[in-house]
Amino acid sequence: MQQSQAPISSSSAVNRRGLRPRLTLLLGGILGIILLLDLEPYATRWLQPGGDIIFWDLHFPRVFAAAIGGIALSWSGLMMQTLFRNPLAGPFLIGITPGATFGVALVTYLGASMGLEDSGTSFALQPLAALGGAMLVLSIQLLLQKKLTQLHSLLLVGLVLGYFFGAAVDIITQTAQAQQVKQFVMWGMGGFDRVLPSQLILLGSSALIGLLILLYHRHAFNAYLLGDIHVESAGKSVKNLRLWLIIGSASMAAIVTAYCGPVSFVGLIAPHLSRKIQGTESHGPNILTSAFAGAALTLTADLLANQLIPNTVLPINAILSIIGAPVVIFMLARKD
Amino acid sequence: MKTQRVLSAITTLSALILGLASCGEHPRDANKSDIVWIKNAYATLFRVGYSGTDSFLELYTDAQSKKIAGAFHWGTSAAIQGYEKLKDRSKIVSLSAIHTGMLAELNAHRHLVGVESRKYIAHPLLQEKSTINSLSEVAPDGPILPEKLAFCNPTLMFGTLSSIEDKQAIERQAKGKFSVLWCNNHLENHPLGRAEWIIAFGWVMGKAEKAQGQFNTVKKDYESLVVEAKKSAGTHPKVITNCVYNGMWFVPQYSSYVSQFIRDAGGEPITAENGTGSNVVNIEKAVGLFSEADIWINTDLCTTLNCLKSSDPRVQHIKAFRNGKAYHFNKQLQANGSNPYWDMGCIYPNRILSDLFHIFRDDLPTDSTYYYDICK
């Protein structure tokens, strides 16, 4: 019974019980407005010659990739923060993003060396390489998960893997040619423009898998936040639960990184915002709110990146960092 | 009396000698009105001037502010205020394949002791293994390697600004040892402006006449092609450049170097904005802009339509792609990775213009091009 309840719930938040659904609704409303603003410029040009092609083949995939990517990253962040019982955990911390970056750097460099550049194969291989790199890190984490009982050891392994793959990427880029470096740097800036309509299915599927894991294990995850003993007393295996958390969070982060490049801050901020609104760390209510927050963040960043300076697209990661850094500092300062 | 006369003669003679010596050593004030500056035809970031037995070179950082990037002189005057006297050009380090190419074009490549990287050099005079291998690489992977530069022990260096760190490192090393000429030829927006820089190199190497003659030939050929393109172009094909990188497209602006080539060859560049730089637009905006493009040039490393499609399948919405009218500039790409389009094309922009002129005109064959070829 204990595990089904919100594990951490402040008294002031309890007093604001009536406010929470309204705040969630407000966040949903904001998300809807941003979505409309992002879709509107092309939707109105729908009937113009070629307007339908631009909308369906180019604009729609970008906006929906931003929305789905934001949702997947927020859930990935939520699960990772649960796994490490640390509100600062994210895909960067356990080495997923450096692993994916390594995969892309390797295929960009090797593609040219093997003459794949001209055939265009290296472009097509990029998402697969990112996925491969992320999965490599995930496999190492899963293997070590069986041996390492201490959470902080797992976290340290993630950090060390991050340094390792970061160093490998540095060596690769130092020996690569200018064009390869350009291609790699463009991928590293992050963005939803490169997502094809067919790839939305894969992005959506990863988010769906993450959602199913979150929904199915939400009570167990709540107990996990209170400590291993609470999980064991509920008759669940801590190791199994960690396995689900790693699989869920890493696969979502890996697939988003593969298709959209490394997208920073969303996985860190969205769960925070959600917990502030809900006033609880319980997973149930935070699933919807963190999804709203994640999608609102990525859509806002996408909108600003495309509209802030006419005829220029700004890097998504730069926008997210400018929004994200003050928010995180503000939240930490308020908490302290 | 006799002693007095001798002493007086010695004093007078000494004064005369000292006076003559000080005339030579005392810094002469550079009176700008004395210098006759040669007006460039297209280049805006350097100028060459003459005054008596002295000649001058001023290099600028940008065309608007005309801020001095370096001022140098050759001549009999020992020192002229505001101008650094060039003393020795026997051992040169060049940080750009274009500068190296210009030196080779002037037959001054034997003075080269170091280059940025051997793999970017495509000049025919430097292709022989013994020649190219005799040059040290001072920045083979981008950043300058100070030890390699010191090993070259240059007396003169042609620099191109890649980073502030590199500039500082080079200037620290150069202090009192060698002169550095920061050449911003890459910032010239007109192709002939970049080609005209050979005159600055000619001035440094003492081959001003040869350089002027070379530029005049290129200019004459280029300008006659422009006239022909203007006369004969009934319809101006809409032209796009570059290709998509991870959903982003670098689109040159209307007055940029590449757009100037397109306009001069009788085409109409499709751009996002007026200006001399470029815009980064996403694939969505690019397809909206480029859907009606007739010709696609400068497809980077892609030499096949399949490669262009793999970079983003949505390029199929562009008319030029559907009609197979995409052209790459890798026709002369060499085994070591060097591409004469970049360095020789800068020295001979008339060749690039001629290629584009042939590509834009349906009635001319495109198999006699220098650098361009169709994407198969």
Structural key phrases:
heterodimer; A: 336 residues; mainly alpha; ABC transporter involved in vitamin B12 uptake, BtuC; globular; B: 376 residues; alpha/beta; Rossmann fold; 2 domains; 5-stranded mixed beta sheet; 5-stranded parallel beta sheet; 18 strands
Walk me through this protein's architecture.
The complex is a heterodimer of chains A (336) and B (376). Chain A has 336 residues and is mainly alpha-helical. Chain A has one domain: Orthogonal Bundle (ABC transporter involved in vitamin B12 uptake, BtuC). Chain A contains 14 helices and no strands. Chain A has helices at residues 11-15, 19-43, 51-83, 96-113, 116-119, 121-147, 151-175, 178-188, 199-226, 228-233, 238-260, 266-278, 283-307, 316-335. Chain B is α/β, with parallel strands linked by helices and 376 residues long. Chain B has 2 domains: 32-205, Rossmann fold (3-Layer(aba) Sandwich), CATH 3.40.50; 233-374, 3-Layer(aba) Sandwich (Rossmann fold). Helices cover 38% and strands 18% of the residues of chain B. Chain B contains 14 helices and 18 strands. Chain B has helices spanning 2-25, 97-105, 129-133, 146-152, 164-174, 191-195, 198-205, 208-232, 257-264, 283-290, 305-311, 319-322, 340-347, 349-360, and strands at 36-37, 46-51, 54-60, 68-74, 84-85, 92-94, 112-115, 136-137, 156-159, 179-182, 238-241, 244-245, 248-252, 268-269, 278-282, 295-297, 327-328, 373-374. In chain B, β6 (92-94), α2 (97-105) and β7 (112-115) form a beta-alpha-beta unit. The longest helix of chain B is centred in the middle third of the chain and has 25 residues, at 208-232. Chain B starts with a helix and ends with a strand.
